[in-house]
Specification:
The chain has 15 helices and 17 strands. It is α/β, with parallel strands linked by helices. The chain is globular, with a radius of gyration of 21 Å. The model has no long low-confidence stretch (mean pLDDT about 95). It catalyses: N(2)-acetyl-L-ornithine + 2-oxoglutarate = N-acetyl-L-glutamate 5-semialdehyde + L-glutamate.
Length: about 400
């Protein structure tokens, strides 16, 4: 028996929700592939991907099938028990990466929280209570919990919530000398995004990551890569560390891992993992069968030579057209990023106007993102069809043309 649902509209948000978000004026209600429809039936092309989450688009049959099958078996048993999907997913992640052990949780912030706690616990056990300092990059983003938001190098997110967590230092990204000056025998971890996502889609330089690896080795510190946004094929490799050839001690993944279903993972080696003994860390929902079954389907689809090669080919399509639009209309100075995580850096005349471009694109039936006020960000499905890329970029060009002629 179906229950009649009361109609809701965008105005309800302002009546019932905490006002920490400012969502768009329309409500998406259905998606298929890289197309989305709103309440009025209007169709949009999705180049936002739920902020780099919908890695296989909307309603991908492999994910719908995995979720439906598992939903009819087992939803939740808690971590008093283990479950088959979690074990299968852990095996697949270990087989595909440097890792030997996996911890499952529900969000990127939780994965980073676990990573930072593990780094401090390893240092405490091995070297004592004085080795607890974490070095992170300015303009980084690692989550919204009190610990992770303080590790993130953006004070606009961490100010106003009482005393800061101590023992955290921030240095400029891609500045190896600054990192070298900050590392000491008190450093327990260096935490970096291989590509700064929220900080403007800014890729790390290879020499910087190699230097960070060497500094950690020389100072008995752990190298943590936050691959919440860059992981699961987004860069054209399964994880961005594989693109650079620099192996971390701890890696965090979320966003694309579940293709839209909430799940996250912290990956590490066995010699480090053993420091989280029974009772030292946990999560009620982490590793639940529904999430793990979906994530297992995600990795089965993505971790193939065809899909990963396709990401690189689609990258080239996007970059060529975006650079042409940028030059023709004088709106971008640079298109940067890896794979299908792309950032268009706005020219001086358009600095601070990323939101205007977001709004103009929406009026043309295109969903995009921004990464701060000066960068327009694209994070589409990794299997977005070439015809959708062309049509979406046609819509984007129409939006840019109207803006620049206004």
């Amino acid at each position: 028996m179906s229950v009649e649902q009361a109609p809701v509209q965008r105005a309800d948000f302002d009546q019932v929700m905490v006002p920490n978000y400012a969502p768009a004026a329309f409500i998406p209600v259905r998606g298929a592939g890289s197309r989305v429809w709103d309440q009025s039936g209007r169709e949009l092309i999705d180049f936002a991907g739920g902020i780099a989450v919908n890695v296989l688009g909307h309603a991908h049959p492999a994910l719908v099938g995995a979720l439906t099958e598992q939903a009819n078996k087992l939803w939740h048993v808690s971590n008093v028990f283990t479950n088959e999907p979690a074990l299968r997913l852990a095996h697949k992640l270990i087989d595909a990466t440097f890792a030997e052990r996996v911890f499952f949780c529900n969000s990127g912030a939780e994965a980073n929280e676990a990573a930072f706690k593990l780094a401090r616990r390893v240092a405490f056990d091995r070297f004592g209570s004085e080795k607890y300092e974490i070095i992170a990059a300015l303009n980084s983003f690692h989550g919204r919990t009190l610990f992770t938001v303080n590790v993130g190098g953006q004070s606009k997110y961490s100010d106003g919530f009482g005393p800061k967590i101590t023992g955290i230092t921030h240095v400029p990204f891609n500045d190896l000398d600054a990192l070298k000056a900050a590392v000491s025998d008190k450093t327990c971890a260096v935490v970096l995004e291989p590509i700064q996502g929220e900080g403007g889609v800014l890729p790390a330089e290879l020499a910087y990551l190699q230097g960070a690896r060497d500094l950690c080795d020389a100072n008995n510190a752990l190298l943590v890569f936050d691959e919440v946004q860059t992981g699961m094929g987004r860069s054209g490799e399964l994880f961005a560390y594989q693109h650079y050839g620099v192996v971390p001690d701890i890696l965090t993944s979320a966003k694309s891992l579940g293709g839209g279903f909430p799940i996250a993972a912290m990956l590490t080696r066995e010699d480090l993992a053993k420091h989280l003994v029974v009772g030292t860390h946990g999560t009620t929902y982490g590793g639940n069968p529904l999430a793990c079954a979906v994530a297992e389907a995600v990795i089965d689809v993505i971790n193939t030579p065809q899909v990963l090669a396709g990401v690189k080919a689609k990258h080239d399509l996007f970059v060529a057209r975006l650079e042409q639009i940028g030059q023709q209309y004088g709106i971008f100075t640079e298109v940067r990023g890896l794979g299908l995580l792309l950032g268009c850096v706005l020219s001086d005349a358009w600095k601070g106007k990323a939101k205007d471009i977001f709004n103009a694109a929406e009026r043309e039936g295109l969903m995009i993102l921004q990464a701060g006020p000066d960068v327009v960000r694209f994070a589409p499905s990794l299997v977005v069809e070439d015809a959708d890329i062309q049509e979406g970029l046609d819509r984007f060009e129409r939006a840019v043309k109207k803006l620049t002629q206004a």
